[in-house]
Amino acid sequence: MTSTAQEPTPGGSAAPRPEHLGRVIFIAAAAAMGGFLFGYDSSVINGAVVAIRERFDVGSEALAQVIAAALIGCALGAATAGRIADRIGRIRCMQIAAVLFTASAIGSALPFALWDLALWRVIGGFGIGMASVIGPAYIAEVSPPAYRGRLASFQQAAIVIGIAVSQLVNWGILNLAGGDQRGDIAGLEAWQWMLGVMVVPAVVYGLLSFVIPESPRYLVSVGRNTEARKVLAEVEGKRVDLDGRIAEIEHAMRSEQKSTFKDLLGGRFGFLPIVWVGIGLSVFQQLVGINVIFYYSSLLWQSVGIDPSQSFLYSFETSVVNIIGTVIAMALVDRIGRKPLALIGSAGMAISLGLAAWAFSFKSGTGDDISLPHAQGIVALVAANCFVLFFALSWGVVVWVLLGEMFPGHIRAAALGVAAAAQWIANWVITVSFPTLSDWNLSGAYMIYTGFALLSIPFILKWVPETKGKALEEMG
Fold first, then answer.
1. Residue 3's Cα: distance from chain center in Å?
2. Of 326 and 21, which is predicted with more confidence?
3. Which of the residue ranges 119-133, 211-225, 419-433 would you say has the lowest mean pLDDT?
4. End of a domain among 180, 195, 212?
5. Does residue 278 share a domain with residue 201?
6. Cα distances (Å, whole numbers) of residue 442 to 284, 295, 436
7. What angle do CA 456, 44, 161 make, to 5 degrees?
8. Which terminus of the chain has a lower count of CB atoms within 10 Å, N or C?
9. Nearby residues of 296 by Cβ (< 8 Å), 6 or more positions away
């Protein structure tokens, strides 16, 4: 069955709509479930931090190490996922990630010691790292060219939806437990259910991986051209010159140069200047403190006098703001450009963080018994949501767009690896340092994040290139 529907192209002309667009959307959405688990696993710990501290009787430093343990696995998973996928295929890689997610959920829900919980967090992080690499790569490889940008956005949308759903599930479980993170539900404490529920999306992800096709690029790479032709017909339609598409893939793979770390070296400061720009983008994205909101928001709001059950509602509402900001970024990034959007975000984040720092300077009490005056409490809540909105509509999306576009082709893969590693390291630094900083001076912690948001403005103006409207081949 053929279709004659037309889809407008960016230039205004009409391009044929793929015969099986619904099937393609399903395939991309299934692969993006890895992004959903990425967001869910990264954020679900937010609902359990108070209970874990009480259950294992640990201080802020040890608690931060457990929360950040997943990031160790993330770095390892991201570093190895590409090689695993090239050896055994994208689908098998997804299935391995699903098994790791499932094991991590069960193990994290039933720990017998703090180190045991940290180990399961590392295993879950390995799955996150794999999913963060394989999902976007697979979607790009199976998507028809005219739809690739929109389908690729599924991954980021899935991440922010995963964050929101984890907050909603945590809130529901907390209510079942009477508002107590350590409340009993069928023999387990509420926080254990929070961590264990991730079994459900992990199993769904694994099952979906059995009903979507292998990447045609991988199939061609291992000589399975007949299967690759069938997949291309499934996702691009039978009207496409399938033999020509196979030849294109073979030619592209022959002409690609696998970049190495050595190719990134040059200049006075070790790396090539453009590599430092990529590292800077990754580091600034984390040093403004975005993960403080998603890892510690419930603890943060409880510490300023908000009832635990209500703090989860605030966390979920913040996740909804994150989704709205991401949708705005998707709509604007190709219209107004990468740099203007990043500048808008930096300015908005700096103002929001500065207001939060001011509000928290009025806190009274110590430890978990902290309160804010009513007016300052409202300012803190509004500022936190504005910060998330400005981050999501700018740096949350723009950084990944720029990292995928701005590197010359001959160093793109290796440069992306270095930039991603810098991002995980910066994420780890923020995650492990926040509890100590907040114990020392909560307002001071937010002033530090405000400083990084301000510093990002001259960094963008002076060093970040504008890639809007440029072909990848133009980057040099």
1. 36
2. 326
3. 419-433
4. 212
5. no
6. 20, 15, 9
7. 70
8. N
9. 46, 49, 434, 435, 438
